[in-house]
Design a protein that fits this description.
Strands 3-2-1-4-5-6-7 form a 7-stranded parallel sheet, with helices on both faces. Helices cover 43% and strands 17% of the residues. Helix 2 (44-58) links the parallel strand 2 (35-40) and strand 3 (64-68). It starts with 9 loop residues before the first strand and ends in a 7-residue tail after the last strand. Helix 1 (20-31) packs parallel to helix 2 (44-58) and helix 4 (117-140) packs parallel to helix 5. It is of the alpha/beta class. The longest helix has 24 residues, at 117-140. It is globular, with a radius of gyration of 18 Å. It is built from 8 helices and 7 strands. The mean pLDDT is 93.
Length: 263
């Protein structure tokens, strides 16, 4: 395997990198020689399994730093960045990947458990605005490389109405708007920003959506290849967008679904 990044001493900062697409991306970039930083929030009971994943990433011959913290907390973000600075020293972050899945899945009309204003605020902040918070903080810490790629993950819920998905849908629209603005306003500093829109990926986050089994069946039926998108499918595209040849792709929302969006 050709290791594009092996001699460059560049790092990937993955927000939400302990499972699913984020973890698959960590493996893919590490295979090609990029060092990895994963910021995540997991229970103590899950940490042993996560550390085993990080050890397997290190076997590719790269460094891997895992930070288990609340990446939405301002003070904890500051502490995490100090730890990152200490770890990468004079090297720089080549790509920042936003793979945060934290939000409320509630109906708008249900009485006791219906969606509230605060549910929107939490979800939009976690899955949308936090991208800007981290990009701005890393930028001000002067940790970005001269040619940086910022990538985040949206969904078809950005334009479609699914039951109990309103807060996440609003967050995805926010995420895309912020990504476009990052692409435009940070361009003079060598930063490119794009959203990837995967097809249905069978992750814990998808399984939390009410009616997820129906969504999965529908996705398989309308996909030209009659299968779901895998985390590795998405990770492969992240890798492509981190290559030098992708430097002129900026401000886009790119479907990564084998053509699922065509129907």
């Amino acid at each position: 395997m050709y290791k594009d990044f092996k001699e460059k001493n560049e790092w990937a900062l993955i927000l939400g990198g302990s499972s699913g697409i984020g973890l698959a991306t960590a493996h893919k970039l590490a295979q090609h020689g990029m060092h990895i930083i994963c910021i995540y929030r997991n229970r103590k009971s899950e940490l042993e399994a996560i550390e085993k994943e990080f050890e397997s990433i290190r076997k590719y011959g790269v460094q891997c730093l895992g930070i288990n913290t609340d990446l939405l907390d301002t003070d904890k973000r500051i502490k995490a960045i100090l730890e990152i600075q200490k770890t990468i020293r004079t090297n720089r972050i080549k790509t920042l990947i936003h793979s945060v899945a934290k939000g409320n899945l509630k109906p708008m009309v249900d009485g006791k458990y219906e969606l509230k204003n605060d549910d929107f605020k939490l979800t939009i902040h976690a899955m949308g605005i936090s991208l800007y918070d981290w990009v701005k903080a890393i930028f001000e810490a002067k940790l970005f490389a001269s040619d940086t790629r910022v990538l985040s993950f949206t969904s078809e819920g950005n334009t479609k109405a699914w039951r109990q998905y309103a807060a996440v849908s609003a967050a995805k629209v926010t995420l895309e708007a912020i990504t476009r603005s990052i692409a435009f306003e940070f361009a003079p500093y060598g930063i490119k920003a794009n959203c990837l829109q995967p097809g249905a990926v069978d992750t814990a986050s998808l399984r939390m959506i009410p009616g997820s089994e129906t969504l999965i069946k529908h996705s398989i039926a309308r996909n030209p290849y009659n299968r779901l998108t895998t985390p590795e499918d998405v990770a492969n595209v992240v890798y492509l967008l981190c290559k030098d040849e992708a430097a002129w792709i900026n401000g886009c929302t790119i479907p990564v679904n084998g053509g699922e969006h065509l129907q």
